[in-house]
Write a structure and sequence with these properties.
Chain lengths: 353, 633
Amino acid sequence: MIRFILKRLAYGFLVLIGVIIVIFFLFHALPGDPVSMMAGQRTDIATRESIARELGLKEPLHIQFLLYINDLSPLSIHNDNASNREKYGYRKLFRLKKDKVMVIKRPYLRRSFQSNRRVDEILMGNLLNTFWLALAAMILATIIGIFSGIIAAINQNTWLDHLIISVSVLGISIPTFLSAILFAIIFGYYLSDYTGLNLTGQLWETDPIYGRQLHLENIILPAITLGIRPLSIIVQLTRSSMLDVLSKDYIRTAKAKGLSRFLTVYKHALKNALNPVITAVSGWLASLMAGAFFVEYIFDWKGLGFVTIKAVQSLDFPVVMGSTLIVALIFILINIFVDILYAVVDPRIRLTD
Amino acid sequence: MNELFDNSKTVLDIRDLTVDFISENGITTAVEDLTMSIGEGESVGIVGESGSGKTVTALSILKLLQSPPGIYRDGSILFRSKIFGEVDLLQQSEDSLQKIRGHEISMIFQEPMTSLNPVLSCGDQLVESLTLHKGIKAKEAREMAVDLFRTVQLPRANIIFDSYPHNISGGQKQRVMIAMALACQPQVIIADEPTTALDVTVQANILRLLKNLREDLNSSVLFITHDLGVIAEIADRIIVMYEGRIVEQGTIWDVFSDPKHPYTKGLLACRPRLDLRMKRLPTVSDFMSHDFRIPDEIIGEKEEEKNVDTEDQKYKSVGEAILLNVERKDELIERRLSVIQGGPILTVNGLKKYYPIHKGLFGKHIEEVKAVDGISFEVYPGETIGLVGESGCGKTTLGKLLIRLLEPTAGEIIFEGKNIATLNQGELRGLRKSMQIIFQDPYNSLNPRQTVGDAILEPMKIHGLFRRVDRKDKVFELLYKVGMKESVYNRYPHEFSGGERQRICIARALSLQPRFVILDESVSALDVSVQAQILNLLNQLKKDFGFTYIFISHDLSVVKFMSDRLFVMRNGRFIEMGFSEDIYLRPREEYTQNLIESIPKGDLEDIRKNVLRRRILKTARLIREEIKTKHDE
């Protein structure tokens, strides 16, 4: 099992390297001049030169890439001087040459062109918001989705089955921006008096009197909106996977043993039927973290998507690159987690180490 | 023989059972007016081919048929239940049925591979019954389960308890199934083809186990199979089913020694025999003039009439059918002589196929599985080589290596002067034209979205055989050769039965006019009656086209019928080679002997012994019980 996990981690690392390569060269090919972005109004040659040197733009492309990797890597080699110490905030491990040191540090994603803040600091603040939103949406989708999928499967071809399927088809086909606006207006505006929900709002709000406060109700509408599509897909997946499993020979064996309908479904069928659902859930969780752009934008939710859209609008490349990288990392980690989860649910997978 | 059961109580009584299946095409009757009964401690066998309604009958007893499409139109299934008294199972509610299923009536299914839940451990699946029906605590149930595993002679019962089904072999899975069925000491055990999916040697072990358990437990057994030889080992009484009806029933001795119905006669005669060499196997249709299902010559429109006319049937008795087809001594010598004329068509030298086992983080090559381990042999034009061995012995790998569907690790395969092992892709395509393989499973080896005609036409297209306008005629000719009508050209594989599909597969393999055909378990998935037809067809085609066959199977009786020479394979090597008659008469290796003995023969002498043995045991038990009751008083 440990070897299995190590192997998955090693593969994940290789994928990450690939993603970094693609991101770096892709953003290099994009139009836009970082120097003008950084320099802003101060356009004298000397400033431009120094900014270009600071960003390493004078170096050939492959050196620039190595520098980027060196910045990202938690273990890296730098000239040991005051400005670098301030820039990276590293801890010295050992000295290599007279002024080179091997250091350990937080990955350095460079600084925003706009605000000159460290990109990882900007993103981390918002990542957590996105994470809570995606998690809430996913929990909602998984619980309701699996439950209604099972209900539909064991009542196949009844009115209940047809109803559940119709609703889920609607859920799949409705565009997120439409459902987001509809939910926001109906529940957050017209019915606001009854629901007590706001059009926009954050999980943590700072109140002039009481200070920072948790507002759980603010996550309800964005989470529902975000969860609709995964919910609908989970319903359909669970249903078809359940129907497939219910026609298997071992279900007949379970019935022949005299097991009740509930035990047959719950003990014998569910675990077998959940495999495709787990894949879907994890895939969706990852893409929700990345793809909550519309919902975050409409509900003004200060998350990763929100920052990224803002950064794209202002051509703030380090932020966009940084958020792309983080999303990739999340995808990779969740996939590894799912592989492990599979092995727990389905003992057959452990064989193929 | 009947007096054994006259005074015993009837446990299960099925009366006028009629089961319909409703589909878009209308109503099909799967079982019609079936009346039968099983006495206490009696073992009843139902024989019939696929589609005869025997499985439907079995599932009806526990009301396990999927409904819809299955509907119990008429009849009753009376059961003497210990909980509910005498009840009609068909009228019972789902709740009370759940108390009977697995508790008073249990079932062993055909496919041990798919009938166990892959995500639950073997022990859990057994304990479940015990806790459910007997209300036993989990801890005690575990001990009982391990004991049960020992009863069904599973090795390392404690370890098996925690193993998952994919960790254990097919035979072991079936033992777990049997243990599950025995768990609550049911009054009736229904075994639906419990050994069909297993190797002959494993089958023999499982049959022996079932036989012993039955005698110990005094449960009634309903045993379902398509193979009369298997039933002879285990049943007291036989019911022969055909097209949803019972056509004959009687004690095992009566049916085997004096079969009345032509279908029964056909079934008895169509099994390939080990003792006699037949030129052609008698088929069921030789006995039945109007076999509307599969006439031997052409598969035509279904005739409505089911009357069995004894006037124009080919054979009147089993003995006649066998005697008329036996190969005479001079014919045997002539056949052997004709084979060894001329040089070999195929020479194999030191052929090896190793599969490395990778271990460690970086997939370090630690050891290897020797699937085929240095095999050398020659095949002469026009002969049939039989390749026999248990599953996992490497016979299928060898078959695939010969036409390079797998890459050999070492060795050479010389076919008509060319070394197949070193051919490049282009040359291989030329080779595929002269060498073809027909696989085991006719259900999965045809593309369900391709019409029969296209399936047969496709290889010709790929290899650019014949002019385009002639190809369709060629397909018709091939269909005729394998005994099918031109009208099947535009139909899809799912419309056909297993035997018909195998005919289509054969026609497809023949479309390239190969000289060399490898048959990999090509009849193993078929009923014995259909198997006989396909085997005859293969022999007929060989005669017509002058093929050379390599016939791979785990069933020695089939291999012996087909082949001139026989290779016995074990652990990737040939352990015995020679003329098939010689090997059968004088097997040198114990392994070969075991293979021969494992085949259920169903001959009268064995049956007589079985019946006598059971009668003695029965009497002994009665005496024991009498002594016990007297003692108690």
